[in-house]
Records
---
Amino acid sequence: MNAKQPGPGGIVVVDKPAGLTSHDVVARVRRLAGTRKVGHAGTLDPMATGVLIVGIERTTRLLGHLAGGEKCYEATIRFGESTDTDDATGTSTGRHDPTGLSAEAVRAAAVQFTGTIMQVPAQISAIKVAGERAYKRVRAGEDVELTAREVTVSQLDLGELRPADGMLDVDAVITCSSGTYIRALARDLGAALGCGAHLTRLRRTRVGPFGIAQARTLQEHQDELAVVPLDRVAEVSFPVRRLDATAASIIAHGGWIPAAEPAPEGAVAAFDPTGRFIALLGDSRGRSWPTTVFVGPDDLQQLRPSADPTSGTDLAES
């Protein structure tokens, strides 16, 4: 007997509450969706709230692409104290009086942390070092050195400073590339100003095209699970290429077709004539290949190739 093929699924946009891990949210959605095939795109720390993309069934195969999209955050940075986690959940590693710090000085220092920068991730992170998570090594007493990585901070807007427990707080709005640690951004800004800093609040407001307005709490999803269908997810997340029946059949069977001109950058979502998402395409040497196919065996029976499925000869695109 053939194993049951997963359905097309979709994504659930969750407004994650503070105190839960991203894996906790996945476990909740597994129960609500009635399937084990659930994953998330872009981890949020337990302290953080906001947009968490959870994929169901075949849509889990898109999560790596969705996690790589641009992200937006609202945060509060506290100047005057550093912590071992770079946020309020950690242990203090030093306090410095921030009296005299001005909003103008903070904004001036922030300039060096905008654009494309090299950032050393927070030590208490899920990054693997010699096969083991960095946070496990640090908590075991090891001195872990993480390699700086290139990230892009396209927006770093800062509000006015305000007193907070003998320190100073500032609210920030940040737009950045995947892989950017907002905790590390707070840490580095505090170091540049000579007074130390850590994050006291973090809320993610957007992941790629999916914003906080589309997010629902776990309780709201429990009342009615709001699933964005796979076809819609692909349509709003990638450039779209609509194929005729012959080209769709060739792609669905793993063949190639001539690349579109001009070829868009990155992955392209291919749709068949019925409007169904069938594959992600990559281009090479004037050809488009399926990097991931999203139609199953039952679906493929409906796509009868009218040309050699390994050749892109004589194809037309609708």
---
Amino acid sequence: MRPFLSRRSLRRFSLLIVLLSLILTTGAFASAQNQPSENPVQKSRDLARKGIQAYQKQDFAAYLENVREAARLRPNFPPILYHLARANFLTGNQSESLRLLTQLSQMGNYIDLNQDEDLKPLQAKSEFTQAVQTFEGLKKPVAGSQVAFELAEKGLITEGIAYLPSEKAFLVSSVRKRKVFKITQDGKVSDFLTSGQDGLWGVFGMKIDVKRNRLWLCTSVVREIEGFKAEEDGQAGIFQYDLKTHKLVKKYILPNSEQGHVFGDLELHPKGDVYVTDSKSGGLYRISTTTDSLERFLDTSPFVSPQGLAVTPDGKRMFVADYSVGIGVIDLTTKTFSLVPASPEMLLLGIDGLYLHQNSLIGMQNGILPKRVIRLELDAKLTRIEKLSVIERGTQHLEDPTLGVIVNHSIYFIANSQWESFDKDGTMFPPDKLNQHIILKASLK
């Protein structure tokens, strides 16, 4: 496994934290290759590895010491909390173990506690039983959406969605087919940008600038695209199109590097600047209206795998969802970053798309099980997360939600992008094993 955090690889792990391999591999604890050694994520991963090695040697005191320090560096991270609960039990602190298991059960990520042989002596305890029941309750679907559109063509890997108000139509991007579809109100589907047009690679996030009549999109080389060439792996760029003519206005290509890049999502600033996240190298970039060039926005990245972005209405701050860290906010003037305060039981990892609607953040959380779409209510000043509620979870169509778009107080989002539709050798499943791509709609009123 590569030493960076790709969105697809972490989705595959989905924080199945019962398995020891999650901490021994780089998937759940991976940091970008350019992260400094003092980065808390990197340090916590290294400590967790040491703890697991001590556990395998039945040195439970060292197991506890290492995972406790890992938890201090990275609080409320389920894989570490799980091992901290086990380590406490194995060193005789049963009450602390039960407290941690209770905390874990309230975070929304499913764990089958009964599979852990080390914890079997706790099964008679009421706290353990309650934790198991809370975990099992996560299997109950939450259906707050309805089908908006279906795409007949299969095997697309749908990722991004945008709205064309002039035509009351939606644009949907395909990573696999390297193109953009248009879906009209009556469900008719046509090509907005054809496969590979203007040198498109896999198409990820998209945004429409209505004021300037522009479509901005992320395009990146990943192994899942048709016509993948190994020598192009890791290339990424932003393409700007004229909405009326569908003609390319300009390409902004990032020079490739050893670790490679994946531009996954972008956000438009009220002044017209474009901000872009690189989920592979952990970078944040900007195309400003003054320079009209792609430039790194932060000299030192605080991110591991940044995904969705949401700028505040005043344009002064921007929320960022980091797949492996949580939700942070950047002061766009001072370029300072901080995590958004939230209660410990609010699990904010594994969020892909992120959108600000009035005083709430809407997140596509495909990095936990069961996958879900969540609403995070903020305080009046948009500085703290005060409540988490689930919009959609564990329903028939919600296989792998990615990105969305807010239209008239509703969120339209990709429900089943189908990134996992490949054999071990990288061959896509045959059509009879693939599902139709679904766009769901949920009211935000």
---
Amino acid sequence: MASSGGLADVLDAAARIVADRGVDGLTMNRLARVTGLSRATLYRQSGGREAVLDALAGSGVDVGDRAGTRTRILAGAREVFGRTGFEAASIEDVAAAAGVGVATVYRCFGDKDGLVAAFLDEMGPRRAARDARDAATGDLRADLERLAEKMLTSMHADAPLVRLLILETLRGGSLLPRVRAKSPTRVIGVVTSLLQQHRTAGRLRDLPPRELAQAFGGMLLAFGVVAPILRGEAASDPARTARTLTTIFLDGALAPGKRRARA
């Protein structure tokens, strides 16, 4: 069916293909033949196969679960950002890495700034800190050990991207405010809220929770970023390191009997 009628005609044709052949039968080559459009025109009008499927799903056509689209785009962003950095990366690069149309990226995230924000918010260290806070048990030592282990594990898994964030912060650039706001090194607010819960319950001394969080966060960064990422040392075992730094944080480094009472 030859057509020059724009996106509505493309979607009508795509819906017929899905009805006749199923979702797997919808290819851009087949859609180009049915519509009579060149592939270049078809991509320009529709944004690509994933964009067409998203549009069909939005109109009520059963095309299966589309929830994975956002996850694929963020995975593509991880690949591209890790390779080129934030500034040099383009929406087109991310779309290609994710196997989706450019229009689909814009539809999911609005623009590049929105994509960077979503990507940083989904990075492991921040998510790990939130999960540990939300799963607080009331056992201060266990909660801190769990948070520390999750953070250290995530920092190790995301080491190239954590390094990228540090470099982007030092270099500056138009995305610096977004990087600073969402960086995994900026988890102090999450740790503060966890410590506040325990301070309110009387399990901590009457010290500002944010200052305590800064101290604990500094230890996490020393073990999770400075040593393995900036100095190239072998990453230590997260569980053992979590126990060690939690003990130092809660009990101090002085041996029993050597601690002096505060004046």
